[in-house]
Amino acid sequence: MLIFHNEKHELHHGKLEMFRGELVPCFEVPDRVNHVLRELQARSLGPIEIPPSFPADALTRVHSRRYVEFLAGAWDEWLALDPGNAQRDAIPSFWPIRTFRCDVLPANFQARLGLFSYDAGTPLTAGTWAAARAGVDCALGAAKAVVGGARAAFALTRPPGHHAGADFFGGYCFLNNAAIAAQWLRDAGVERVAVLDIDYHHGNGTQAIFYKRPDVFFASVHGDPRTEYPFYLGYADERGEGEGVGFNLNVPLPRGTAFAAWREAMAQALRGISAFGAKALVVSLGVDTFAKDPVAGFGLQSADYLRIGEDLAAAGLPTVFVFEGGYAVDEIGVNAVNVLEGFRERAG
Ligand code: 6XA
Ligand code: ZN
Fold it and tell me: Which of 159, 178, 243, 254 is deepest in the core (most CB within 10 A)?
């Protein structure tokens, strides 16, 4: 399996995030990817490459231009406010919810930071843009490999992407790697693309990006938004809108769900993808479904990830894996690589 590694990921290293009422050290740390990389090397899953750079218009196929421009310049704006900000990450604290204007771009930086985000858990740092932008190249490198005939490819990157919408960041995500890869596959001529999100958290950004479209099917298995982040999206009755009705499938599961029930939920999502007639699959691969994950609540064990890989391979589709969440840092490498190894064993 071809693996694309984001060599700039460490440039994004948040200090603190708002979590349960206090600022705590970030869960989304560089070591996450380093553990996966070491495990990939130890188990020889395939060649590990740095991707080429892809043209920036792949970003604006999914994200709004004003959002991308804001992100690209945000750190410089933050520094211009106060040189002391070099020691502090930018964290939003105002949001224009309901009844507020979102069409006017405020001059105030903090106001724009809030306009383009939805939580206080996603610090923007000096290297966020460089890391996120290089991560998109990993996702596109993997998509290109699959269009070129590879059975599967893996984009190993952080920051993750699936919570980022067309014009907002949140949930540690800035650019939606999986959505950008799916759109790139469409633009490369793949008629119908499915995105399957198996991170613990609902991929609200990816869902929103494709919600009105019949050409990209979004399916997600995740913690029930009644109790689990991101809370405000991910219910089973969200089936798509307009031409997109019937092309969105959410399978929310209660906190505490163990592997047998989780596996049946993924089988349900894969049946939806098969009925859709997908020609390629993008998997948002989060491993925060692991029992010991500190920010999530399912009960999967390390060996279960081999079975997940096998089940995904059995779908028989060219597959782009994109790394998302997972914060049990010591086990994250084994769990993520188990999915890829299970896939490889089954795919042959
Ligand atoms: C709240 C928890 C964010 C979860 C991010 C994640 N700060 N998404 O893992 O997949
Ligand atoms: Zn997650």
Answer: 178
